[in-house]
């Protein structure tokens, strides 16, 4: 083994924490010097570790999503060990990575899919690591044969990366005569024809996805990785808002945070299924940034506000649309 992966801060005998320290043995130069073959191998492994640290860094930026962070590490560990097994002459059969992402809107599905695509590219599983995000209208055509063609074209575009289908169950909604079925059949065929050349991710509401998979018996076994994206708690949503403001060089006043918190509590209670989680707070923050701009222009009609004022989002900037 050329590198050592440690789960730091793990409980003795318990689950390791998601904070992973990658300790590279290339810090021990005598190993690299010993043999050219080993040195090439070590260099490859070092690069992969560095790449993984990059991915890990991106994941750490995301609030919550502990199950997803663990899954990504699991895949990384599997890929590393598979490589070592193959070098040791052991069997390392092809693995199926098609996935189902279940969750309400704005829970981070697309964001995670992008990071996962990048990881597979860096780990050498996918050649390009891009993400093609589509929905029913992109796949389904208007006449017989059109759908198969449209779907095949999109699969072609996704080769070397991930094909991400949002609200995948809408393909099954029209029943037997609907062209959606043709899209499903074409996708299943493409998964066979282009094995290991692309990864398919089906995304959408949990219950709808489950129902869709149940009613298409051939499908569940083709998607061995199923990931739940839970709704964010109010505290997580506040953390996400503060992060989003910070990323844009803004500060939320404590009273602004309180106002947002109260509003989110209300909104989450009222809208249940339709509440769009992190996307909702992103829109709220972006709207408050625009309102702050208008307020500042009015307030400082001659002269310009100071740096702190330019950064501060006050309670009056945070306005919510009436339902
Ligand atoms: N855990 C998180 N931490 C920080 N930002 C997040 C997190 N989850 C989502 N976001 C942000 O929220 C926005 C919406 O996320 P994303 O588009 O990934 O959600 P989604 O689940 O794909 O939604 P939809 O089902 O509506 O397509 C993005 O701007 C994303 O960066
Ligand atoms: Mg999305």
UniProtKB/TrEMBL annotation:
It comes from the Bacteria. Pfam families: AAA, AAA_lid_6. Residues 95-233 form the AAA+ ATPase domain. Keywords: ATP-binding, Nucleotide-binding. The keyword Nucleotide-binding applies. PANTHER family: AAA-TYPE ATPASE FAMILY PROTEIN / ANKYRIN REPEAT FAMILY PROTEIN (PTHR43392), AAA-TYPE ATPASE FAMILY PROTEIN _ ANKYRIN REPEAT FAMILY PROTEIN (PTHR43392:SF2). Belongs to the CbxX/CfxQ family. This is Stage V sporulation protein K. It comes from Paenibacillus silvae.
């Amino acid at each position: 083994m050329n590198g050592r992966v440690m789960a730091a801060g793990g409980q003795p005998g318990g689950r390791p924490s998601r904070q992973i320290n990658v300790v590279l043995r290339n810090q021990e130069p005598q190993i690299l010097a010993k043999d050219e073959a080993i040195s090439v191998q070590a260099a490859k492994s070092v690069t992969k570790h560095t790449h993984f640290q990059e991915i890990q860094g991106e994941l750490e930026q995301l609030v919550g999503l502990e199950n997803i962070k663990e899954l990504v590490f699991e895949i990384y560990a599997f890929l590393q060990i598979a490589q070592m097994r193959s070098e040791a002459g052991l069997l390392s059969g092809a693995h199926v990575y098609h996935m189902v992402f279940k969750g309400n809107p704005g829970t981070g599905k697309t964001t995670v899919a992008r990071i996962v695509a990048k990881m597979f590219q860096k780990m050498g599983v996918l050649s390009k690591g891009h993400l093609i995000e589509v929905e029913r209208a992109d796949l389904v055509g208007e006449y017989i044969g059109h759908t198969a063609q449209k779907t095949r074209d999109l699969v072609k575009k996704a080769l070397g990366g991930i094909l991400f289908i949002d609200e995948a169950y809408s393909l099954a909604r029209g029943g037997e005569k609907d062209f959606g079925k043709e899209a499903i059949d074409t996708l299943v065929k493409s998964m066979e024809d282009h094995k290991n050349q692309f990864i398919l991710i089906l995304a959408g509401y949990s219950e709808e996805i489950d129902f869709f998979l149940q009613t298409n018996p051939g499908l569940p076994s083709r998607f061995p990785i199923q990931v739940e994206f839970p709704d964010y708690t109010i505290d997580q949503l506040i953390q996400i808002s503060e992060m989003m403001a910070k990323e844009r060089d803004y500060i939320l006043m404590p009273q602004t945070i309180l106002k947002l918190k109260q509003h989110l509590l209300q909104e989450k209670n009222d809208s249940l299924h339709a509440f769009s989680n992190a996307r909702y707070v992103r829109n709220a923050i972006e709207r408050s940034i625009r309102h702050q701009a208008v307020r500042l222009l009015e307030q400082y009609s001659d002269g310009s506000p100071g740096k702190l004022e330019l950064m501060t989002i006050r309670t009056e900037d945070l306005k919510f649309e009436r339902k």
